[in-house]
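stage 2 :: seqdesign
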C-alpha cells in the first residue's frame, strides 16, 4: 500500500494526534480483490475528522525471477483514483541484464562481445518462455 499525504502547509513532523488519525485511516482499510485499487474502506471511513482522506488506492503484486546475471520482474498494479472515480490495472515486465549494463559502462566496448552476451541472454529467456508448460 502506498500512502500519499497532501497538505496546504509544509510539514516536517507529525503530531501524535495526526499520526493517530492516519493510523486509524490505514487500519480501517481491508484488502479486497473485487474492488478497483484492491483496497476497500467501510462506509464513511475513507476520511478522518482531521481532514485526512483517501485520494488514491493502489495495490501491487510483484514477482522477481533471477538466474545468473538475468533478472526478470513481473508486476501487476491495481490503482483507483477516489477523486475522479477512475481505475486501471497495469501489467509490466522488466528485464535486467547485469553483465550488459557493466559492459556498456566500460570505456572500450567490444561490440562482438556485447552482441554475443545479448544473444546468449535472449536465448536463455526464449528457452524459458518457450518450454515452460505453466505459461502456455
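stage 2 :: out
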Amino acid at each position: 500500500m502506498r500512502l500519499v499525504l497532501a497538505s496546504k502547509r509544509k510539514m516536517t513532523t507529525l503530531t501524535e494526534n495526526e499520526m493517530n488519525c492516519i493510523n486509524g485511516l490505514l487500519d480501517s482499510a481491508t484488502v479486497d480483490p473485487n474492488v478497483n485499487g484492491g483496497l476497500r474502506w467501510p462506509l464513511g471511513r475513507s476520511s478522518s475528522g482531521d481532514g485526512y482522506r483517501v485520494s488514491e488506492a493502489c495495490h501491487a503484486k510483484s514477482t522477481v525471477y533471477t538466474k545468473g546475471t538475468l533478472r526478470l520482474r513481473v508486476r501487476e498494479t491495481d490503482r483507483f483514483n477516489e477523486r475522479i472515480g477512475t481505475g486501471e490495472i497495469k501489467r509490466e515486465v522488466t528485464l535486467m541484464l547485469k553483465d550488459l549494463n557493466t559492459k556498456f559502462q566500460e570505456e572500450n566496448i567490444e561490440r562482438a562481445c556485447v552482441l554475443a552476451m545479448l544473444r546468449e541472454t535472449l536465448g536463455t529467456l526464449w528457452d524459458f518462455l518457450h518450454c515452460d508448460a505453466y505459461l502456455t
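stage 3 :: structure notes
- The chain has three helices and five strands.
- The radius of gyration is 22 Å.
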